[in-house]
Amino acid sequence: MNFPAELKYTKDHEWIRIEGSEAIVGITDFAQRELGDIVYIDINTQGQEVAQNEIFGTVEAVKTVSDLFIPVTGTILEINPLLDSQPELVNQDPYGDGWLVKITLSSETEAADLLSAEDYKSLIGV
Amino acid sequence: MKNTALTETHISLGAKMVPFAGYSMPVQYEGINAEHQVVRNSVGVFDVSHMGEFILKGERALELIQKVTSNDASKLVEGKVQYSCLPNETGGIVDDLLVYRIDSNTYMLVVNASNIEKDWNWISKFNTYGVELKDISERTALLAVQGPKAAEALQSLTETDLSSMEYYSFKKGKFAGIENVLISATGYTGAGGFELYFDSSHAEEVWRAIFEAGAPYGIRPIGLGARDTLRLEMGFCLYGNDIDDYTSPLEAGLGWITKFNKDFVNAAQLAEQKQNKPARKLIGFEMIDRGIPRHDYEIVDRSGNNIGKVTSGTQSPSLQKAIGLGYVKPEFSTVGSEIFINIRNNPVKAQVVKLPFYKG
Q1: pLDDT digits 0-9 by tens, A62-81
Q2: A37 and B292 in contact by Cβ < 8 A?
Q3: Other Cβ atoms within 10 Å of B138 Cβ, number
Q4: Inter-chain contact A62–B33, Cβ cutoff 8 Å?
Q5: What is the mean pLDDT of residues B201-207?
Q6: Residue A108 has what pLDDT?
Q7: Which A residues in the span 68-87 are in contact with B, Cβ-Cβ below 8 Å?
Q8: Strand A74-79 relative to strand A14-19, pairing
Q9: Residues of B in contact with A30 (CB under 8 A)
Q10: Which of B229, B230, B314, B321 should be substituted to probe chain A, the one whose Cβ sees the most A Cβ atoms within 10 Å?
């Protein structure tokens, strides 16, 4: 499994790439493997501010459903437009074309709570 | 946690293992959708050795079976299999099972892994017929080889003519060089194929032989995840989801295996229920609006009143639609009825459809 060192992670198995005042959020390689074949992504929080660790959507896989949690407080700017027709991108390329949302950050300090790739790997035991 | 004789094989094939009914079992190898398609289109192999097998032996074995099961086992002839259930005394189901007639004094019952002990105790309780009961679950391996290419893929391993075997019949014979393999033309997928019962000491040998013989047909290992989507597309009940200690066979649409021409446990109460019509019915439904039904989601009517509960649901890999089974009040059970599934407090429209979902 792959956990890029330049990303930050959460215990809820999301990753975040912070670029200035914006960030991209997705789920980790571990999360997509645990979920199995993803059927669709349900995010209806576009334009809303979501507080850190709150639910911003759900991911439906064949076998199960799981909530999606925002790593840091932010406003949902954009939902990955590819996922509507190709939800399997989250399985195939979780850190690339399978990203979930773009957000604007509301806080400058919360990022300190995030996990490094190494911390995340020891959390999931790999 | 118990292992089957093939647990190490599954791990070496990269399976994701999960605890199921006290066993460590493969839930998927390459992915549920891909494995599902392999079974629908060619052939795949499931290790279902966790299932339970009991041998009932004695002159009055049939009488005991007639007493504890709802279907009419007197209709069985040697070499035939019957789907049946064990009704409890309070209107529910102890388990569903297969009944094999080996000979006039010998039967094999195949039961769900999670219910082995419960079924054993239940059947023993009614054994006033002097029938010898033997639990061979621990030493019996069971491989389900399922799919339209199953007969072709396996034929080189046995002299038994596989393509001529009727659905729900079985033969005992030599298979992959192993004596005494019970070859059963049964399955839980609706894709056709065989279930092979044999001594678990030969499990790895038989597994290897099947994959060698099946290689030209693209044979693949299949996990419990795809087993669930395959059975659900056929509308087959899963014990613990769609049927349990509190659902009656009549409510569950199992009237066809509930035969009142003989006496069995709780027959009188079930006959009365049949007369008065059950208060709820198991139905199949398809989602009209987007959402995936899951076990225990509430079913409501247009005004939001509770009318039932989802018992199974998934995204059907063959149909590319979200489908489910659930109990509803009889007035909502006719094909075409509009129902709503409460998905995270949001009523999502669905429609009652005819089973099976998948018609091949």
Answers
A1: 999 999 999 999 999 999 99
A2: no
A3: 11
A4: yes
A5: 98
A6: 83
A7: none
A8: unpaired
A9: none
A10: B314
C-alpha–C-alpha distance, residues A98 and A92, integer Å: 7
Closest to B315 (Cβ–Cβ): which among A33, A39, A42? A39
Which residue stretches of A20-105 are H helix? 29-35, 89-92
Measured in angstroms, the CA of A60 and the nearest CA of chain B are apart by 7
Q: Which residues pair with B17 in a beta bridge?
A: B26
Interface confidence, given as ipTM, is 0.84
Residue A115 has pLDDT above 90, yes or no: yes
User: pLDDT at residue A113 above 90?
Assistant: no
pLDDT of residue B255: 97
pLDDT in tens, A32-65: 999 999 999 999 999 999 999 999 999 999 999 9
Q: How many residues does chain A have?
A: 126
**Smallest CA–CA separation between B16 and chain A, in Å?**
9
What structural domains and CATH numbers belong to chain B? 7-51+138-233 (3.30.1360.120), 52-130 (3.30.70.1400), 279-353 (2.40.30.110)
The CA distance from A30 to the nearest CA of chain B, in Å, is 12
pTM of the predicted model over 0.90: yes
Task: Answer yes or no: is pLDDT of B194 > 90.
Answer: yes
> Scanning every residue of chain B, which has its alpha carbon at the shortest distance from the alpha carbon of A84?
B290
